[in-house]
Structures are given as structure tokens and as C-alpha cells.
Amino acid sequence: MTKVLINEKLVDEQDANVPYNDRGYVFGDGIYEYIRVYNNNVFTAREHFERLLRSAKEIGLELKYNVDELTELIQELLSTNSIVNGGVYIQVTRGAAPRDHAFPTPSVEANIMAFTKSYDRPYKLLEEGINAITTEDIRWLRCDIKSLNLLGNVLAKEYATKYNAQEAIQHRGDIVTEGSSSNVYAIKDGEIYTHPVNNYILNGITRMVIKSVAEDKGIPFNEEVFTLDFLKGADEIIVSSTSIEVMPVVKLDGENVGDGKVGSITKSLQEGFNRYIDTHS
Ligand SMILES: *Cc1c(COP(=O)(O)O)cnc(C)c1O
User: Fold this and answer.
1) Are strands 221-223 and 191-194 parallel, antiparallel or unpaired?
2) Which residues make Cβ contacts (< 8 Å) with residue 73, sequence separation at least 6?
3) What is the pLDDT of residues 186-243, one digit of tens each?
4) I need a surface site. Which of 162, 210, 214, 258 has the fewest CB within 10 A?
């Protein structure tokens, strides 16, 4: 029987319920993480848990666990569910309380929930690439927080799905920010360009790995804003996240990216990413 973690208890999936007035449910008042498991190893676990704690701090949510305690809780869930290759979703909400926008006083205990999923790496898509579509970024101005409020992201992804694309690349006016659930890179003349880390994007852990791989390989990694026109003229485009890794975009708004094939810099980053997985798990 698959278990779900609810506040330190591993409960059967069908019994895993949360209170109707949980603030995550009522206000989207909470944060989350999604972590990959490769060969029984929780990939970049520390970086993800540190980001979870940062998100908590940024929304004034008191979490009683540190990185080691979170690691232990999640490890137990993964072992119980025998996850060899897959992922784990973790969310923390400000807890259950009568509905009132302001934080509950006195404060209530945060609710933590985690569930697992077993699946293989997206080998076929990594080799062939995906289609992406561009759309205005209508999200709030604290995209650096991995918040449960994902309506802007949900609408962007649904728009992509409707037009047979696998990801929506968002832009604020002329400036490309990030995907609905991924970071975005334009590659031009052998150099990588990606939005700098600030409140307009989520600082991806995969992005950090790609940066380190690029630096190892001597590929310039420019953390600079770039325009939609620049993206449309790119030789190669990549989107990245924990679940899609280093994913090539071969069509943008129905037009070929470069020659419409997965490019050489992308392949080189994918190779470096694979090596990073092998040496860090
Ligand atoms: C989670 C997320 C990413 C990717 O972050 P990873 O740590 O690489 O998984 C990028 N953008 C948004 C909006 C996200 O929610």
C-alpha cells in the first residue's frame, strides 16, 4: 500500500486527508518542493530543503524542522514506498484555522504533506525535444518563492497544452522570464543566456546544476535579461526543471528553433548533467 506523509505519520493513500479549513486549501497559503530520485538517491536534496526553508521564511511561516530532519522524514517515506527512480512532492501550509486572511493568532501548527511517484527519466523527449509557446507572464512579483499559488502557472500551461506545446515560455512585456514550471535558456553563438536570479523567476536547482556544468565545460553562462525577439532568433533553446532536466525546445510558437534539431550545446549540457547525476548519487 502506497503511503503519504502527513505531519510525521505515514498513512495509507486513501486515508490521507487534510482539514477543510487548511490555509493551503483556502488561500494557497503555503509552499512546496519537488525532488527527483535517481537510483535510490534523493538528488540535490540539501539544495531543495534549503530552498523550502527559504520559501517558508519569505512568507513568515515557522517550520519546526531543519534540513536534516526534513531529509530523514522524506527518506523514510521514499524507502517505505520503495522508490528507486521517481520523485517526491512536499508541501507545507500555514495550518488549519478559521478563515481569515491575516495569519492565525495565536499561530497554529504548520501542516506538512508529502507523496511519492515512481517513473523513469524522460529519455525520448530529452533526445527529440519539445514544442513551446510564448505567453505573457501574469504572475505576482514574488516568483522567487515556490508558493502553492500557481494559478498564473496553471493557466500558462493549459494554454500551451491547448496549442499542442509541452511548455509555455512567459515574458513580462519584452523580457523573457521563465517557463510555467521551468527555467528558460537561449543559446546564441555558443553562449548561454538566462534570466538573472531575482523576484521574477524561481531559482531552479536544475539551473544551478546547468550553470556548474557550463562553467566546467567553459561555455559562457550569461545571467542577463533578454527579449522575446532574441529568444526567437536563438540557435538553441532549453527549458529546465527537476522533472524535465535539460530539455531541448525544437519548436517555438510553431516555428523551428535553429534548424529544428537538438543543438550541440544542448547535447553537451545534457551529457554534463548525466555525469553530474552519476557523480552526485
Ligand atoms: C520549480 C520551478 C522551476 C524549476 O526549479 P527546479 O528546482 O529546477 O525544479 C522553475 N520555475 C518555476 C516557476 C518553478 O516552480
Assistant:
1) parallel
2) 5, 8, 65, 112, 114
3) 999 999 999 999 999 999 999 999 999 999 999 999 999 999 999 999 999 999 999 9
4) 162
146 is a catalytic site residue: yes
Verify whether ligand 1 is closer than 6 Å to residue 178 (CB atom).
yes
Ligand 1 centroid, distance to 56 Cα (angstroms): 16
**Exposure of 261 in the CB half-sphere (CA atoms within 13 A):** 4
| Fold of the domain spanning 3-118 | D-amino Acid Aminotransferase; Chain A, domain 1 (3.30.470)
Closest residue CA from atom 14 of ligand 1: 181
For residue range 230-274, what is the model confidence (pLDDT) as tens digits?
999 999 999 999 999 999 999 999 999 999 999 999 999 999 999
**CB of 146 closer than 6 A to ligand 1?**
yes
Instruction: Give dist(CA 86, CA 172) in Å, integer.
Output: 33
